[in-house]
Records
---
Amino acid sequence: MDKQNPRLRDNKDRFIIFPVKHNDIWDAYKAIEANFWTADKIDINQDLEDWKDLSEEKRSLLHKVIGLILHSEHKLNGKIIASLNKNIELPEVKSFLDFQTVMENTHTESYGIFLNTFLSAAEQDLVFKEIEAFPATLAREKWIKKWTNSSSFAEKLVALATVKSIFNYSCFAALFWIKNCGSMHGLGYTYEVIYRDKAIHRDFATLLFKDHLLEDISDEKVQQIIEEAVAIEKEVIYNFLPLNLIGLTTKALDEYLDYESNRLFTDLMVNKSLNEKAFSNEKLLKKRAQDLSKNLEKNKDYNNLRKKTD
């Protein structure tokens, strides 16, 4: 087999899924199918009451968080999957990616419900104009165009796993805080199921990369793709979202993002002997990430937020 072609090609005369040829991929599809949910399950009645107690500053933060996620969902996710699908004939894989597209449509609908509930059309327009004007937004779009248009199927898979792990990390940290504070229950539920979905999508891209690909790719290239995304996301952390309003320091989130990016690189590494050199600070980063999670858990009643947010 030509080593520059992915192993994700199959007999062109195979018209039905059975008998299943790749059980690990099919198991992943059945797992994503079992976790299917719809936006109709979201109850925002309590959120409407909680919203009244939020300060204008914290409302503005949520506007930015939800708007940024929606903008990314629209600009990033669909393009990578569409590009990948052009190279895939394996029905088990196409089943998963087609279902992933459906789930991402549900994510977009769900966040849209919140934005449409709490912002007027004029306010939404202002939020998206601010996002469009932010330099990291253009950087994200250039990043996705660069790796989506790559001739390397492996690079596209790394990009997909990276999008699910890195982009909007700061936004999810903010939603994690809100969930733990016991406010905005409908948004908290939405965060939980979408975060779970994204983990499934990331793990699937990793599965294909590690176990179903013959194409050569260097660890340096994998690291480049991830590091470019991390640099963009850190711009969001430091220069766009006022995370200090919710008790998150930019330094702590910066370290947590480093931990997550290192973990992703470790999962995708081809030459495991590079591990010690590449991650000399891994234990320290992991400890700091765990400390951040513990601190967030302790702050469930941050400023007694359930009843008083300021």
Note: Confidence is low (pLDDT under 50) at residues 273-289, 296-310.
---
Amino acid sequence: MNRFKRLSPFLGGCAAIAVLALLLVIYTLTRPVPMAGTKNITVDVVYEDGVTDHYQLTTEAQYLLEALKTIPDLTIEGTTTEELGLMVTKVNGRQADYKKDGAYWALLCDGEPCSYGVSQQAIKDGERYTFQYTPADSTGGGS
């Protein structure tokens, strides 16, 4: 019986390492794969009042934030973390303050919530990205 008590922490550690390895494999297989070459994308910004700004862009960028930085009339602001990248809080000077009133900027790809944030979203030719101001009482994707 004593022998099993000594093996228990060892087996727990092995199980934790196996789970971490499995998660790493899953991430590697499902992470966004950037498309090389020139891409034509559309970016829309839908504000709280329903007004929409529309941008067409031809880019060599592989990730959305990289492409957005080349649009002179578009400003994206927020807080950045190493794990998640940029968390968008302000688009073209219009703030969505989740802490204040529950509103946020939803990031959509072809009308569906993006799987990744603006910093990690790989872009593909022909895609349409939308920053949608989303009030607290609405449902939508996250940014």
Note: The longest strand covers residues 39-46.
---
Amino acid sequence: MKLKSFIIAIFIAVGLTSCDKNSSINYIGVYEGDLPCNACDKVITKLTLSEDEHYALYEIYKIAGGDEIKRMTGEFEWTDHEGVFRINQPEAMPLFFKVEEHKLIRLNDQAKPFDQPENYTLTQVEDNSDTE
């Protein structure tokens, strides 16, 4: 009888944790890196993610005629793929990122990896998960 109760408890625990498959992912913090750009030299990127699923995105587009700066804040949302979230941009395609150990991988507009994903990596420079 104890074994049956134990098995039921395991199924309940697995069921509860699978409801939010991203709950165990440590994503909170600040990420930085230089991302490729088709219409410019590169995009210097800083992305801050908070526990309440808000973000702050700061980008500097390095263009020969002068830099273009873009700032966005808002809420991000998890997709159906584990560890992948979306930032919806006004009047532009959404941005997709995959959370990995101490880094974010920028994905294409179908939430798939680019060729050479190492070129699309933001590295975690600050971990804010312990701050309150």
Note: Residues 103 and 123 are 4 Å apart (CA to CA).
---
Amino acid sequence: MERRKFIATMGSIAAGGAATVGTGAFTSVEADRSVDVAVEDDASAYLGLDTSGDANDQYVSGQGSGEIVIDFDDSGNSGTGVNPNANTVLESVFQIENQGTQEVDVSLSGSGISIQGQGTEISAPGSDGIAASLSDDAGDATLGTGDSIDVDFAVNSGTSDLSGTLTIDADAT
């Protein structure tokens, strides 16, 4: 009987000692891994930015250089800008396409460009300026894999040239 108590006591001490020493965990690890990142043109990136296939996509340039540029200075015909003291609407200028692997919420912001709510028809700002909006016929700014949405612009022009920067944000849902 005493022998059993002794073996039980020794087993408890051994188990307690193993718990004190640890279970093979570690404090830190440093490991090198290779990481490859491909940088693609706007049209080929995970968030694709490309012409819309509509008549107003003639104002999109730079596809060959990697980054698209929206330029309402030249129609490629004989027109070289918007009318002075006028409101000009240009729908479906370019397209945003989700070419990634998960659903994304898309939004616009800008510097020198006012952003109008998605799902409303684009209209020119109340004073000189440029407005942008996600196309009103898309219905939703959440893009599943392979889905796309057009970007519309409107210009309220005085007699001076206008410019701005449009920021496109896509967040995985």
Note: The longest strand covers residues 86-98.
